[in-house]
Structure formats: structure tokens, C-alpha cells
Amino acid sequence: MHHFNRSEIDQLARFDRARFINSLSGFKSANLIGTIDENGQENLCIVSSVFHLGANPPLLGMIVRPHSVPRHTLENLLETQSYTINHVHSEIIEAAHQTSANYAKGTSEFSVTGLSPQYLDDCPAPFVMQSRLKMALQYREHQPLAINDTVLVIGEITDVYLPEKALRSDFSVNIEACQSVAISGLDQYHSTTTLTRLSYAKPDRDLTTLEF
Amino acid sequence: MHHFNRSEIDQLARFDRARFINSLSGFKSANLIGTIDENGQENLCIVSSVFHLGANPPLLGMIVRPHSVPRHTLENLLETQSYTINHVHSEIIEAAHQTSANYAKGTSEFSVTGLSPQYLDDCPAPFVMQSRLKMALQYREHQPLAINDTVLVIGEITDVYLPEKALRSDFSVNIEACQSVAISGLDQYHSTTTLTRLSYAKPDRDLTTLEF
Questions:
Q1: Number of C-beta neighbours around residue B43 at 10 A
Q2: What's the ipTM?
Q3: What is the rounded distance in angstroms from the CA atom of residue A132 to the CA atom of residue B96?
């Protein structure tokens, strides 16, 4: 077992430390955030920081760094109060990853990556046509985290689109049926295989396995 | 493609909605949080909400619900300013899941699940001996999120322990080599297979694949 203490972590070169620390939280979600500004300029950006915040109301959080690539995303969603979250699946990994490049504001990541904007129902922000599980979100709040100048963005899910085959009768979603991928570190993409589903845990009862 | 609008989401029964919404963010990390209170009472709790917050300083965030099972975790880490984060791997899924049961404060989840507390270096909080990638964290701050009464807890990584074979020469970590698992929804556990690692994206350069 290798032990890194804090002084050894702090001595790592900048990108070594970024690769190392970004690997430690475990597997991350892979999502494309679709936005549009008031002039109709579209933007698309991959983020690995979307997380579940609550089911009632249905809330998702994400962390953005205002001085790095997702800044256009943040500007746009504050302007229009709307954004979409689109799962990355195994056939669009390269295009999704390419959206993290630092394009000028006037360049749509849709046009350079081959991903197609799609407008559904009354959501002003573009979805990713190729994505198989996608959501419309209404912006609710953001707060700068003084500890490291990142920003926590919170949105409320208003619409969900997913394949019929991914929806189970208990309303859990089989995201493997959408070929959704997981991310580790800065740059590693993974497919998954289900090992088990387990019943709600209680102190005096044995776990049982659920159908998946 | 199935479409749920907001009114259909709101009409789902409580646990159906919890299963549905918890599935939407994508894959989640699977970690055990180890804590101890001032009287030496140990606590262990699985959480799927740990996320990367920053590399410099090395920060991890997690979301806890103060009125549900992780409340002892929150109380303890505020008392002692210390906690550990331990990856769940494929051989300890059932024991890890069982820690989510609502045990009384006087019951250590270590003793009822067969997971073993381990004390390393000068960290007051217990690690999980069976875990293969584990970290000591110093509590930095917490903030209640008024939007739904959850709490964002932020900690700073002070020590990291991992197998030599999982550490690459560029300091990225192959968490598959630790058999770390991913979670989807409330109860589904997944192993992973690496599909690709991709180079840092730039506007005018093609992506290349990295060794993994």
C-alpha cells in the first residue's frame, strides 16, 4: 500500500496533482450540458460533476469553475434560466470529450463535434439529439464556494426523456440500457456491468437481491 | 422515447419518485465514510454523494441529509473535525450497503457488518481495513442548502492510501485495479470496463488515446 501524506501531495507538479486528486472521489457521471444565450448562440460542454441533490423537488447540482471552459455554460444558464443535461453514451465519447476544448464563445460545440442540437417541447435550451437519456432543467440558484472559487449550480428537473426499455416497473432506470458511461479521473471513460441490486437495508433483516 | 413532464413526475408515489430521480444524474461514486465521536463510538455509512471539488487544495464535497441515516456521520465529523473516505469494491458491496440501515447511535456499523476499523498514522477517524483506496479528510466547512434541507460538507484530503499497482506514472489512478464499484439509482452496483482514455482536448487538435 502506497501512502501519500499531505506534503507529498502538495509537492506533485500541477497536472500530476490534478490527475491524482481527480481520481480519488470514485466514479463520476458523464453529462453534456446544453445551453443557449439570449442571442441564440448555442453551447455544449461535458461535465463530470453533476450529482443528485434531492428527489422532491427533483434537484440536481453541479460544480463549475467560472474561469475554465464551462464559463459560457454558466453565463448562458444565468441569462436564460434554462439548461439541459444529456447522458454521454459509449458511441459519443470522443465528441463529448472534445466539447471540453476551449472554443471561443462564437463557436458552437455542436457544429465542431457533430453532435446535433434538438429542441423539445418548451425548453429554450438545446438537447443533444444523440443522447438517450436527457433532461430539461430550470435554474434555481447558484452559490460561489469561497473555499476554492468554484460555483455550485442547482437546477430543478422539469422534463425527462428516456427509452421505454430503460424504465423499470418500479420507476428505477436501467441506465446501462442507455449505454451511459462513467468517468474516472480527468480522461478515463468506462462502460459498466451490473453486479447486483440490493433491497432497502434494515437493522434486523437480511438483504435480498432485486431484479435488474 | 418516453417523456415525463413535471406534473407526471410529481404524481409518482414517494418511493417510485425517489427511485426514478436518483437514477437520473448518472453513475455515482460508492464510498464508506468512517467517523468516531468524542467518546470513541465508531460509525460507518455508505454514501453515493462524494464528489470532486478541487485539486489545489485537494477538496472533496458530499451531500448529507441531516434527518436520515448519515446524521451520526455529520455529528461525529463536526465533533472531531475528521473523517475517512473508503472506496467500496466488488467484494464488500453487501456489507457496505447494510451500513445504510438505521442503527442506533450506540451500534457500530463495523461490528454488525464485519467490516474492520483500522487506524492509520495520526487520523483520529477509523478507516475500513478491507477497502483498497482510502483517504483521511480534515473537515473544512459545511453549509445547509436551504432549497431542500440537505447539507454540503467539504473536507480537505490529508492522506491517501492505495495499492502500488493502481498508481500510474502520470499520477492518475486506475481505480478499476482497486475493483472500485459505481452506483446507479438507490441500490444498483456496477463493475466497470475501461473503454478509452483521451488526451486533453484543444480546439485545433485531434484527440489521441492514452495508455490505460
A1: 27
A2: 0.97
A3: 31
Contact B102 A3 (CB under 8 A): no
Cα–Cα distance between B86 and B129 in angstroms, integer? 9
Query: A-chain residues within 8 Å CB-CB of B101?
Result: 201-203
* A212–B188 C-beta distance less than 8 A: yes
End-to-end Cα spacing for chain A: 35
Burial of B16 (0-12, 13-18, 19+ CB in 10 A): middle
Question: Do the chains contact at A162 and B2, CB–CB below 8 Å?
Answer: yes
> Could you give the CA distance from residue A32 to residue A34 in angstroms, rounded to a whole number?
6
Determine whether the interchain pair B97/A201 forms a contact, defined as Cβ–Cβ distance below 8 Å.
yes
Q: Could you report the per-residue pLDDT of A34-93, keeping only the tens digit for each?
A: 999 999 999 999 999 999 999 999 999 999 987 777 789 999 999 999 999 999 999 999
Contact B173, B22 (CB under 8 A): no
CA distance A109 to A104: 10
What is the nearest CA distance from A38 to chain B, expressed in angstroms?
24
pLDDT category of residue B68 using cuts at 50, 70 and 90: confident
Closest residue on chain B to A100 (Cα): B201
Interface size between A and B, measured as CB pairs under 8 A: 350
Task: Read off the pLDDT of each residue in B181-198 and give the average, rounded to a whole number.
Answer: 98
Q: Which amino acid is at B80?
A: T
- Write out pLDDT tens, residues B97-119: 999 999 998 999 999 999 999 99
